[in-house]
Design a protein that fits this description.
The protein is 79% helix and 0% strand. By secondary structure, it is mainly alpha-helical. Its main location: membrane.
Length: 283
Amino acid sequence: MLKYYLEIIKPRIIFGNIILIIGGFLFSSHLSFNIFLFISTILGASLVIASSCVFNNFIDIEIDSKMHRTKNRVLVKKLLQPISVFIFGLIIGGLGVFILGFLVNALSMFLSIIGFVIYVFIYTFLKRKSIYSTFIGSFSGSIPSLIGYTAANNTINSVCILLFIIFIFWQMAHFYAISIIYIEDYKNANLPLFPIVKGVLKTKKHIFYYIICFILSSSMLTFLGYLGYIFLFFNLILNFYWLYISYLNIQEKNHFKFSRKIFYLSIIIVVFFNILISIHFKF
């Protein structure tokens, strides 16, 4: 029973978001690290994210039943009662909001609620209707970095907004690669995703453009004086390789050959990027 509840919170998504939270927090608090605040931020935000995943599972039962990669999910196979899942989602979400509000700050709590609303009530429903659902979904996926950043200094400033934009570009490339890999699944579920409506080739070109935007926006952390040239050097090496693979993907007729590589590279890049901003190179 416990493993089923663990499955519906989507641990891999939570872990991925924790990386953004840690990066944002350490980048913001490099001069005054507070371990209690750090743990409270990760715990509270993770619970809210887990809650959003639970409700996403709850809402997407019909869609999940039509896709090969999701047809064995807990709610599709009726391994848990929907009402139990609904209550579970409310409890962990409420607990997460409470932790952020009382142990971190109101701003981080408010951002977590915004991320929850965008993911559960806007993105989850919009993906059934619009090719731009991925773009809207990227907003909620970028908010964990803001939660981490604002948890440490309780303010939204220009660098905080820049981080938000950087991760939107990263997520668009990341999610578009996923949409190509699982395009047949999405067709079976009748979801109007970008590669289905606009074509795979155009999607691959957009991935290329988004990676360029990610490179330019992340480089601004150096050019605006927030980070040094050591960060810029290491950041560009891996990003240009990612861009090169994306270029090869446009030329390749086999849509899956390089799309998977772009996807896995995107994971390496987001981890590496957050490590770099956590170290906070100033030279």
